[in-house]
Amino acid sequence: MIILQITGAILVILGLVFFLGAAVGVVRFPDFYSRMHAAGKGDTLSTILMLLGIVCFLIADVPWAAVIHGDFSLLVEPILTSIKVLMIALLIMVTSPTSTHALMQAGYDSGIKPHLSEADDDSTPSDEETPTP
Amino acid sequence: MAPMKIVALITVIITGGLLLYATGDFPAWGDPLSPANNSALSRHYIEQSRVETAVPNLVTAVLADYRGYDTMFETVVVFVAGLAILAVLGQGTSRERAAIQRSAERYQERDMINIMTARLIVPVLQLFSLYVLAHGHYSPGGGFQGGVMFGASFILIALAGGLPEALSRLSIPGALLLAGLGVLLYGGTGLVCMMLGQNFLDYHILHRLLPATDAVMARYHAMLIVEIGVAFTVTAIMFIIYAALSSRGRMTGGL
After folding, report:
1. Is the pLDDT of residue B250 over 90?
2. B23, CA 20 to 30 Å: which among A20, A127, B116, B241?
3. What is the pLDDT of residues B134-178, one digit of tens each?
4. How much is the ipTM here?
5. CB atoms within 10 A of CB B189
């Protein structure tokens, strides 16, 4: 069962890496839309990866030696917990992209302009261009 | 960094450090010698609540039975808060309501994704909230939690399909009726106990009215009745607060 534990650890760490990417994106991306892009995608994927990692750990913790000898009742609780965790993952898979979409739509409706190129950027004008009077 | 930010940072670090330092003084989780477990009252709850009420979840037994007055007036507080918000904000003038209606119609033509997701989530959410309500005797849950989730399902309908869509399912007068009914159900259970010659909210006498119960199971079932009352009130007031606050805002029907 060491393989399952390693898989679980890799999934959790991978989820944390994606979470870090999402956080960096939210801080560094130039406008509302690209920030939401980072937050929505990173959040969804990393949460699902971490929940899958937790399921791996749950399955790995089952005392398999006793189960193979016929004590199947030991399987009930880990499998129930795993199904609940997987249902949370399913819920996040459905709701998180929708909430990102809804936020985008709300931002578009309230007239937030996307940041299309450096020339649009008022806060940090580049040195080459002379500002029009 | 601005000086105020540095001051704020130092304050946060000091507060966080103090809080971390204080956690060392907490009794261990489940410590039988912790002060909270050692008064005669809490020992009585811990040892006797299962015997006296047949409810395994100690929290529910304390909340709905031993301290029923507290929970009843909490429900009344929720009810009065909803009434106050409705009295202060109202439902908007008819012109504002028409603006909401128009924006909702415009919105509904355009956005399928929110509506379809809400259709997927709302039935699950409502079913799960009923489970949380009914399972409060055995696991964390009960009237407040179940009611909040049921109210949230109506708020989700309002967010996805626009406020009129949700109001066509649960109107403001209907919600007020539901909220009042919840408080009435709670207080009425107490009054019935009084009519049967016991103290207010002393449920065990209800075994004369509830079929196939004894004094212990009457307390068990009466707790479910008052939890349902709490859930009615919380559901309705959650929705009323959302409807009142959102319709006086920027008059966009959906998200």
Report:
1. no
2. A20
3. 998 998 888 899 999 999 999 998 888 777 788 888 888 899 999
4. 0.71
5. 21
| Alpha-helix runs per DSSP H in A1-133 | 2-28, 32-60, 64-68, 76-109
Output the average pLDDT for chain A. 84
| Residue range of the domain that includes B196 | 55-247
Instruction: Please judge whether B255 and A98 are an interchain contact, meaning their C-beta atoms are less than 8 angstroms apart.
Output: no
Q: Do A102 and B121 touch (CB under 8 A)?
A: no
In a domain, B49, yes or no: no
Q: How far is residue A103's CA from residue A115's CA, in Å, rounded to a whole number?
A: 17
Give me the domain span that covers residue A34. Answer: 2-102
Interchain proximity A101–B114, CB inside 8 Å: yes
- B75 found inside a domain: yes
Nearest-neighbour CA in chain A from B113: distance (Å): 7
Count: domains in chain B: 1
- CA torsion sign for B136, B141, B145, B149 is negative
Residue B9 lies inside a defined structural domain of this protein: no
Average pLDDT over residues B50-59: 89
Residues of B in contact with A95 (CB under 8 A): 117, 121
Q: Is the pLDDT of residue A130 over 60?
A: no
Q: Which two tokens stand for residue B115?
A: 């509506």
Determine, for residues B113 and A98 on separate chains, whether the beta-carbon distance falls below 8 Å.
Answer: yes
Collect all residues from A whose CB is shorter than 8 A from any CB in B.
91, 94-95, 98, 101-103, 105-106, 109
Reported as a single tens digit per residue, the pLDDT across B192-242 is 999 998 888 888 888 888 887 888 888 999 999 999 999 999 999 999 998
From first CA to last CA, the distance across chain B in angstroms is 36
Tally of domains within chain A:
1
Interface probe, candidates A100, A108, A109, chain B, greatest B C-beta count within 10 A:
A109
Give me the total of CB pairs closer than 8 Å, taking one residue from chain A and one from chain B. 22
The answer to whether the Cβ–Cβ distance between A102 and B159 falls below 8 Å is yes
Residue B141 included in any domain: yes
